[in-house]
Amino acid sequence: MKIAMVIPETEKSGIIDYSNFLASALSISHEVEMIGIDPKKCSERGLDYLKSKAMKCGHSDICHVQHAYPVFGNFLTLGKNGFEQFVNTAKIPVILTLHERYLSPRWNLLSSFPGRLLRRGTSLICLKRLARSVKRIISHVPLNEITRSREILDKIDVIPHPIPLNRDSQISSEECKKQFGLENKIVLTIFGFTYSRKNYDLAVKAMKFLGQDYHLLIAGESYSNMASDCWSPKDTEARNLALEGRISVTGYLDDNDVEKALMASDVVLALYDQADGSGSLSFAIAYRRPIVSISTYMTRAIVDESPCLRLVKDRNPETVAAAIQEITGNERIKDQLSSAAGQYASNHTFEQMAKQLDTIYSKMRKE
User: What is the pLDDT of residue 134?
Assistant: First the structure.
């Protein structure tokens, strides 16, 4: 079977990394062609550009779209539904992986509570339109917490976010800390693009309840296509931490440096308000690092299967700090989290996801 996998055509993207892992696993049984859509060209050239990409997909048996709202731009939210026309032009069965259910806040004039409600409502409208256009939707979390629409739920296949295999690093933690100038520090790390939903300010506030030997490492940079939805260390508390030498920002890291930053980390912080899946979290699990996370539908689903995360129920800086200290002060807890992470990673590889997709693809072709 030939699979056309549609991905964002950008220089840096977690979805591209995810798609490459998945394509490699699928290629054991299928021919996979990667077809990139450039968000800038999509905005500039509009439907003609989308249709040209769809026609390229039409030479395959299945089109699998790794969906990101910035790729399809405002075609989803304005009158002309570009995605629907993309599907109609491809003329083959289309399946979509929903990497994020919510539109970026930059589509809304309001960032207040009413603005968030508007974003949620608009996102559900877009999700309904997506569901009408495709055969199946892959979600990494159940969607019945946000919608009762059978139009959406009847097309959902839930597959937990895959983990890029167990990773046994040959680099010592202390050696990696030295490379970041953090020797003899207790390193707390937030990975990936600096989306504001990762709650950087909560991590900054938690640092006030931790000793001077704790250091907050921001291992990433803002995503250029969604800069308005990214955190910037401009607030007073973050500046003060920087002056004290207790916070640093690495900028974008390549794969080798991601490994070093992970191995330098005593605790990885995954303080998401909401997320449907997380590449940075999956790498932290793959390297079996201790992780502190906010309790959300995504993280609860992970812990229900394997206790590889230390969940914090509220967004209280003191509570977050206490969870961090509980881990850093107890080797037994570290070992338990590491062992559970290894088990979870083994249960959810990209190869296992590829096998599940093989069954779904076959059913789609028969419909």
Answer: 92
